């Protein structure tokens, strides 16, 4: 496994990794995007457009094979509650997701309504599970377009209410540890501006990502990539990014990680894992990358639960944990490499 850069040095540089690397022969790649927009302005509902795809690159060369491709379009209100949703291809239970709110409640609903999606590790499950995280951070996109994005509709800012909201989040992750930088934010201080980033797609590898549209106006994009190769060990190279549009036409990243892991082919247990924070909002955030040894020996298929158990609270980072939980579907990707 290629060693990643020192986490602290990487954060200080605050550099996006840029486009995805070229696909390796004999590999499988899962990519996903969730694009969030506000067709009715900042006080209206959010429009979610999500896509995810699994693609195998043959060892002997030739055209890659698309093995699965899923998507959804949804309207989600400011409270992060699903107003309406359509899945592609259609799933019978999709209408029952309306009324559920992003967070742990939604994940329980997915288990009740679409348990087969999680069991089978489908691309659809990844993007549906990601509604919770994407809806939580989406409002940051407005910080790239206006200085008063945290203000009320009438233009006011309730400092005491904001402080109470921050206090309620103390300890939820390393970035919200007691006394952390985030708790000193207020009306007079802009949050993290992030770091410039470019298109995820490599122009020399047009099939390296599924198709997604250019965002117009204020928009946030949550993107994931998981590459898997199989030899004496299963090697995972994964990446995660939250980014937003800018008025000048560029993009700004708020969160970006790269994860490398090795897994035993017989047990699918983790033997080595490390994370490189590329872009994060606060100086405390990289600390979560130093606790990943707690996952050594964990079976991939159980990561969605194990990560929440072993990297809870200030031992983890909300966004790194989500990226790690997404590796629970790697067994499905490995099975695609075994198919003739």
UniProtKB/TrEMBL annotation:
InterPro entries in the cross-refs:
DUF2889 (IPR021312)
- What is a single Pfam family found in this protein's UniProt entry? DUF2889
Q: What is this protein called?
A: DUF2889 domain-containing protein
Source organism per UniProt: Novosphingobium album (ex Liu et al. 2023)
């Amino acid at each position: 496994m290629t060693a990643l850069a020192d986490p602290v040095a990487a954060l200080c540089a605050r550099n996006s990794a840029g486009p995805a690397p070229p696909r390796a022969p004999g590999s499988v790649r899962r990519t996903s995007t969730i694009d969030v927009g506000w067709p009715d302005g900042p006080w209206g509902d959010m429009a979610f457009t999500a896509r995810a795809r699994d693609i195998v690159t043959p060892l002997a060369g030739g055209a890659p094979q698309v093995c699965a491709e899923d998507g959804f379009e949804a309207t989600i209100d400011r409270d992060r509650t699903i107003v309406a949703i359509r899945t592609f291809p259609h799933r019978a239970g999709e209408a029952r997701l309306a009324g559920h709110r992003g967070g742990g409640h939604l994940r329980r609903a997915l288990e009740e309504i679409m348990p087969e999606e999680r069991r089978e590790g489908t691309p659809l499950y990844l993007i549906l599970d990601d509604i919770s995280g994407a809806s939580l951070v989406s409002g940051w996109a407005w910080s790239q377009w206006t200085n008063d994005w945290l203000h009320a509709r009438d233009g006011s800012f309730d400092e005491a209410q904001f402080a109470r909201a921050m206090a309620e989040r103390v300890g939820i992750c390393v970035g919200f540890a007691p006394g952390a930088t985030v708790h000193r934010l207020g009306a007079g201080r802009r949050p993290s501006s992030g770091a410039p980033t470019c298109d995820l797609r490599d122009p020399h590898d047009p099939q390296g990502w599924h198709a997604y549209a250019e965002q117009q106006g204020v928009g946030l994009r949550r993107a994931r990539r998981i590459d898997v190769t199989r030899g004496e060990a299963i090697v995972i190279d994964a990446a995660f990014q939250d980014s937003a549009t800018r008025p000048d036409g560029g993009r700004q990243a708020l969160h970006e990680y790269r994860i490398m892991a090795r897994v035993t082919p017989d047990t699918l247990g983790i033997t080595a894992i490390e994370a490189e924070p590329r872009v994060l909002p606060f100086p405390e955030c990289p600390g979560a990358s130093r606790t990943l040894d707690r996952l050594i020996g964990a079976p991939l298929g159980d990561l969605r639960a194990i990560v929440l158990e072993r990297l809870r609270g200030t031992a983890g980072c909300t966004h790194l944990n989500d990226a790690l939980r997404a590796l629970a579907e790697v067994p499905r990707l490995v099975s695609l490499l075994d198919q003739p």
